[in-house]
Amino acid sequence: MRRPSLPATLGAALVLLASAVLTAGTAGPALAQGVTALQQQLSQTAAERAAAQRELAEVRRRTTSARDRYNVADREHRAAQDELARIDDELERARAELAASEDRLADTEAELDQVTADVAAAGAELDARRGRFEDRVVAAFKYGQASLTEVFANLRDINDVIVTSTYVSAVVESDRTMVGEMAELLADLDAARARAVELRVEAQRERDEADRLEAEISGQLVEQERVAAEVRRTRTSLATSLRQLQEDADALEEHLKALEAAQEQIEAALRAALEAERRGRGVGDTGTGWLKPTNGWMSSGFGNRVHPVFRTVRLHAGVDLAAYSGTSIIASRGGTVTFTGWMSGYGQTVIVYHGGGVASLYAHMSAILVGSDSYVAQGQEIGRVGMTGTATGPHLHFEVRIDGVPNNPCGFIPC
Q1: Which of 80, 273, 308, 343 could cross-link 349 (Cys pair, CB 3.0–4.6 Å)?
Q2: Where is 104: in which H helix or E strand?
Q3: Which helix or strand (DSSP H or E) is residue 199 part of?
Q4: pTM above the 0.85 mark?
Q5: Which of 136, 203, 213, 199 is nearest to 170 (CA)?
Q6: Cα(84)–Cα(88) distance, rounded to whole angstroms?
């Protein structure tokens, strides 16, 4: 989060202070104009403070609303996670039931194999008994107990043999037992076959039900995971908004402190301007024209731009000349140093007054090489490039002000 930039009123106040102080002995009208401008800047600063306080109140209101929405989203997220865990448990139970069904299916198939083997054995036994029975019939024919033609003339299958009373009366009593055993064997064979069909149907039904249950719960799990992911994204987005709002509130509070400091400095400048009227001083030889204060390329020009912290359009009162940290900074013109030191978002700053209400400002320095109230010649080294204050990279912020009003530096130096 960037620190809030120095209010324009603060830089203007200091330049006007320099103008008022340094022209007191030779430019009475300029001093009066400077005092008037300072009074206007004081009024503007008060208005900006009021606007910042309103903006802070609105940010706090939005923060409270965002926190409430985040708390709701957080509860929904926990509920979604609980539901996800519940469905996951159901899926585990369904999978366990599927495994149990598969075990029962394996048992059923084993039983089916046994029944199939039993059917085969019963068929073999039936064939053997049928052979013996036919031997009996042949024997009866030989001994005159029954006519083979009469026995088999109207029979279609072995069941007719069992139920036909004419045939039963023709065989010896001992054959009755064999016929009964064959009838029981046929009944057992039919029952085994029916059981095999029943087992197959039951096994398939259990498997189909287990598959259906797993598919249904798996679908619920996929849907719940989608819902949980959406709730999680919403909660994350709200958390980011809440954090940004809190950062904005912190920045606004810092900005308000800077505005309060600006008011104090403007008030001090007004007092100093009145004192300067009594003593006055000059600036000496300022040199010819203007020099570019450092080697570097212009990374940001003069004019309105979107404020990097508050995302509102504000005036960028100078130009930024990007250069390596430690690059030399020279006085663009000769004059008297009226300010050196830390200036809120400007960082390490030097202000040089050139006379006639004209001053230049050099900001974001890594080192200051001149003292306040000293005279510097045009081209004299006054500091080094840095990135103190509000800066995202090493550069020199350079301003030119006339009677406290920012002018485009590109009208004075080559850009």
Answers
A1: 343
A2: helix 28-142
A3: helix 173-279
A4: no
A5: 136
A6: 6
Phi-psi map region of 280: left, alpha, beta (phi>0 left; psi -120 to 50 alpha): left
Give residue 329's identity as a one-letter amino acid code. I
Residue 111: per-residue pLDDT: 75
Q: Mean of the pLDDT values across residues 284-305?
A: 88
Compute the C-alpha angle 405/408/413, nearest 5°.
Answer: 125
Q: Pseudo-torsion of CA 162, 168, 171, 175, nearest 10°?
A: 50
Q: Does residue 268 carry a pLDDT above 80?
A: no
Largest Cα span, the chain: 167
CA angle, 254 then 255 then 259, to 5°: 120
**Which residue reads 């606007």 in tokens?**
51
Contacts of residue 102, Cβ cutoff 8 Å, sequence gap at least 6: 207, 210
Question: What are residue 350's DSSP bridge partners?
Answer: 340, 362
Which of 16-25, 49-58, 106-115, 322-331 shows the lowest per-residue confidence on average (mean pLDDT)?
16-25
